[in-house]
């Protein structure tokens, strides 16, 4: 049995005046430790799918299981990292990264120490007593990553976590997140509009079409790229070939969505 399964998920957003089908017949399986990316035109339901997996939204039809358990409500098995870091400005970095543990009643001395060790591992050992406004955007996102990992989630959901950063910081964080997730053998799902990011970080890429959102194609990343850090993967000849292929695929889907 796969670690994560999404079985026949459909979702319709209903308002007073209309109903919009956001997702249709979404079926996918993810193995433990895999890094999966979702690409597709704007409005194809990528974030909606992530929200359903996190149990923030209940699907109109279908089900999600993680490690064999039906997902019906939010819990600490799932970590969610967004474009904005959403650190509490009035709390220190140490207080911010341990807040999840505090909420679930598991802020032990050992778990606090583990958080501080994670903070050190990503190069922020000297900022634990500082406040978010004293940190750069990249440093804040690194702190947000520690907060996400603090509760030891089984799966991480990443919704464009690097898109607000400058390009150099983005590339550095890609490498850092890639290394951390591999080290801790975490399963991760990334929503992104960046084709290069998806290729450099992923084991597989799911392409979604829109109106409604469906899985159009699945691309397996070559082993030669999967073994490299994202920064080095971007320099591999197969990276350019795959980039062009995905660019054409997404361009066709974008044109099709505008016609429809």
UniProtKB/TrEMBL annotation:
SMART domains: AAA (SM00382). InterPro entries: AAA+_ATPase (IPR003593), ABC_transporter-like_ATP-bd (IPR003439), ABC_transporter-like_CS (IPR017871), ABC_transporter_ATP-bind (IPR050166), P-loop_NTPase (IPR027417). CDD domains: ABC_NrtD_SsuB_transporters (cd03293). PROSITE patterns: ABC_TRANSPORTER_1, ABC_TRANSPORTER_2. Keywords: ATP-binding, Nucleotide-binding, Transport. GO terms for molecular function: ATP binding. The keyword Nucleotide-binding applies. Residues 4-235 form the ABC transporter domain. SUPFAM superfamilies: P-loop containing nucleoside triphosphate hydrolases (SSF52540). Gene3D superfamilies: P-loop containing nucleotide triphosphate hydrolases. The keyword Aminoacyl-tRNA synthetase does not apply. Pfam families: ABC_tran. This is ABC transporter ATP-binding protein.
